[in-house]
Every structure is written in structure tokens, then in C-alpha cells.
Specification:
- Helix content is 27%, strand content 39%.
- It is an alpha+beta fold.
- Strand 7 (142-146) and strand 8 (152-155) form a beta hairpin.
- The termini are far apart.
- Mean pLDDT is 77; it is low at 213-217.
């Protein structure tokens, strides 16, 4: 058996270079196989962290936007009861609570019987207008100017049912007018201010009716 003839020097060098390149490429492949999974995990973790962060931030922004109150200056609300009789709610300032939809009123004024000649007007230091429940609550320091009856009434609180038009209060009421003074425990303002009924208990035993409309209505 004869030995294979030796390769020419140029072929031997070419094989060496190819072997060197193969070893280098093999090393890079091993390196990539080692670090590529780590890189994938790091990138995936970064994406998950970013998505979570943005979700939390978006939620905080939405919650902040939801909680942001809406303030109105010289607010005015018009409405009608179930008999089609109009009323007006005005206020120096009104702030809507987005969580409840209620308006907190500063310096409110409530006017009833807008279609008639005699308007019952109520003012107070503060109040609340709940459109969903259909109520207007005025207080404290409610002052009632009752049409042309000449009576001026004072009470801690007045609550209006916007559906029926009735205004009620059970925290006491006092007033002065052409017939003198009165003091009662509770009251009801009916028919958009056309009639006011009083009821007393204990020291306030008064029972009576003020009818501002009189015979000319």
C-alpha cells in the first residue's frame, strides 16, 4: 500500500484557514446558544414590566380623571315637577362629585312658581342637588321669602322633591309677617309656594296655614 501524496503547500494552508474559521464560527454558535435564552428572558421580562407599568399608570390616570370634580361658577339649573310647574336652582358656585353625580351648592337660591305673579324664593349658605334622586336640600340658614304674603321664614333645612314640587322641613321654623310671629316644628310648602302648612309639638303647638295666593289667584 502506498502512502497518499502530500498536499501542496497552498492546499494545506487553505485547510488550516477553513479549520480556523470553522472553530471561530463554532465558538460564536456556542456563545449565542448560551446567551440567547438569557437575552430572550430579559427582553420578555422588560416587555411584561413595561406593559404592567403602563396598565397601572393608565388606571391611576383614569381614576384621577374620574375623581376630578367639575366646578361651575354662577350655576343655574332649570326643571319641572310632574305637574309641569317650573322651578329654578341657582348658586354662586356648584361642584359636581363624579362618584355620586350630586352637585354641592354654595350660596344657593331656589325659586318656585315661576309662571305665577308670586314667587317663593329660598336662599341658604349651602346645599346639594341630587338630579338622580330628584331632591334639592338647602341648609344651613335657610331663608324663605313667601311670595306676597309678607312672611319671612327661617329654618335650618329645606328639602324639595323635584317630582312633586313639595318642600318640607322637620328641624323647626320661625317667621315674622303681617299676623305677627310664628314658631313651628315642621312645615310643608305645597303647590309651588301657594300654601304653607305648619305643625308644632311641645312648646311649638302652632298649627296653621299661610295661603299667599289669597282670593286673587
Amino acid at each position: 500500500m502506498t502512502d497518499a501524496p502530500p498536499l501542496p503547500p497552498e492546499d494545506d494552508g487553505k485547510l488550516g484557514r477553513e479549520a480556523a474559521r470553522w472553530r471561530a464560527r463554532s465558538g460564536r454558535v456556542r456563545l449565542m446558544r448560551r446567551f440567547l435564552p438569557i437575552l430572550i428572558v430579559v427582553l420578555a421580562g422588560g416587555v411584561i414590566t413595561w406593559v404592567t407599568f403602563r396598565t397601572v399608570i393608565s388606571g391611576v390616570e383614569r381614576e384621577a380623571g374620574t375623581r376630578q370634580e367639575q366646578a361651575l361658577v354662577n350655576a343655574m339649573f332649570h326643571g319641572q315637577d310632574d305637574q309641569g310647574r317650573s322651578f329654578l336652582i341657582g348658586a354662586k358656585g356648584a361642584t359636581r362629585d363624579p362618584a355620586t353625580g350630586r352637585f354641592r351648592l354654595v350660596g344657593p337660591v331656589l325659586r318656585l312658581n315661576l309662571g305665577g305673579r308670586k314667587v317663593t324664593e329660598m336662599t341658604a349658605d349651602g346645599g346639594e342637588y341630587d338630579q338622580a334622586a330628584g331632591t334639592v336640600t338647602l341648609g344651613p340658614n335657610v331663608r324663605i321669602a313667601d311670595g306676597d304674603s309678607g312672611f319671612v321664614l327661617a329654618t335650618p333645612e329645606a328639602v324639595m322633591d323635584t317630582a312633586t314640587g313639595l318642600v318640607t322641613g322637620d328641624k323647626g321654623i320661625e317667621g315674622t309677617g303681617p299676623l305677627g310671629t310664628l314658631s313651628a316644628s315642621s312645615y310643608v310648602i305645597e303647590n309651588q309656594g301657594e300654601r304653607i302648612r305648619f305643625r308644632g309639638s311641645g312648646e311649638n303647638k302652632v298649627r296653621g296655614v299661610i295661603n299667599p295666593a289669597g282670593s286673587d289667584r
